[in-house]
Amino acid sequence: MRSLSLPISTSGRAPCAPAMSKRGMFIQGSNWWKLRREAVAHGADITASARSSSSSSLSQLALGESLRAEFPILDQQVNGQPLVYLDNAATSQKPRVVLEAMSRCYTEYNANVHRGVHALSAKATQEYEQAREKVAVLIGASTCREVVIVRNATEGINLVANTWGSANIKQGDEIILSVAEHHANLVPWQLLAARTGAVLRHVRLTPDKSQLDMDHFRSLLSPRTRLISLVHVSNVLGCVLDTAYVAEQARRVGAKLLLDCCQSVPHMPVDVRSLGADWIVASSHKFCGPSGVGILWGRYEVLESMDPWMGGGEMIADVHLDHSTFAMPPTRFEAGTPAIAETIGMGAAAEWLYGLGMERVHAYEEKIGTYLYERLAAVSPRVTIYGPRPGGPRGRASLAAFNVEGLHATDVSTLLDMAGVAVRSGHHCAQPLHRELGVSASARASAYIYNTEAEVDKFVEALTDTIKFFDDMHGAAS
Ligand SMILES: Cc1ncc(COP(=O)(O)O)c(C=O)c1O
């Protein structure tokens, strides 16, 4: 596999390594400070060159069956049946390159980052900062200085709510969310509204309840709108937001825009330079990386305007007993020892996924997602699948949240599990959306790049058996 060949400074440190205390940098001698300044000056070129060198042998690898060898976990039996893993919207599986990258970190160069002058620490810092660059490439950031490493998307949204939100949202200001948001994009704003007296407005669903009603969205906009925070791709409906329209409207009313890209970054090309958002968030564990790490991307001038959230080591410039000054972003928002091996794993995942080609990933998912939808819809007229039909103007994600009339989603999922098929059931952290849909729960099958049509067939077969099992049971009981 060819790597992205990201440029690394001659000292072996990545150009985007956050600044250590200035005193520390001079003590180290060498040209660290100069490199740091160069990194800042050339930030915009870093990902441009990395992006243009993206051709890789991975881009020749067929998706689906051919990829499965890269995912050792998929080759196992569950409840005596070959595993069919269709819970990818909750978390994806991890390819060997990610497992190996994390293992190498612990077996070859484990040390704290940005602190030591010794070889292991330099290597750990280099790998850690390269991971930031790899994620920057995946999301199209023009500089890795815009990529804040956080624990997950949830933390990224909380960070914005507690920094930009606390400083800029006042009583009577309005925040536009939607009824389809994941709890991660509802609760932080509820907490902010409770602190500030801001008003939350929610975009409702279209009359067929398949996606967000953009006319309603427009009607909610006003000079009081300070922030719009919406899901790019819904983890339940699978609908895809018209981000160009939303960004245009946000600009028109002078509101900031945050996009929850948890279900888009893993599955389609996402280019933050053209998205029109001020921030996006994504979680590594959903794009083939480890859990415990994710990203907040923000336009640099917006990040620069934000106060720190958590205080502690690393995020400072100078600390005195009674006050401190703070580092520039992204370091300003990364207090304490980070999840080092996990971040390195996330970088390996970003590089691997980007190497496959996100256009190809998206095309494959459209194909398997449509197959999943159509096979599932044909199981029984009692099956309701939520969200838009495939083939619509905005497409839909390769997931299907559904219910079978007369059956509880958890019972369905339990029986599917007995057949080796892993799907999620419950409210998928979208309780308000389920209320809108008139149900308390749904089952959800979500496919990814390593799933095959044969697996969808097994899922459909197991679901057909499940329905028959419950019908027989109910028949016997009546
Ligand atoms: C659309 C969406 N937003 C946010 C999240 C929260 O992600 P995390 O728990 O990794 O922070 C998820 C996870 O399921 C999601 O699907």
UniProtKB/TrEMBL annotation:
GO terms for molecular function: cysteine desulfurase activity; pyridoxal phosphate binding. It catalyses: (sulfur carrier)-H + L-cysteine = (sulfur carrier)-SH + L-alanine. It comes from the Eukaryota. Keywords: Pyridoxal phosphate, Transferase. Its EC number is 2.8.1.7. The keyword Ubl conjugation does not apply. Its cofactor is pyridoxal 5'-phosphate. GO terms for biological process: cysteine metabolic process. Residues 84-459 form the Aminotransferase class V domain. PANTHER family: CYSTEINE DESULFURASE, CYSTEINE DESULFURASE 1, CHLOROPLASTIC. This is cysteine desulfurase. It comes from Volvox reticuliferus. The lineage of its organism: Eukaryota, Viridiplantae, Chlorophyta, core chlorophytes, Chlorophyceae.
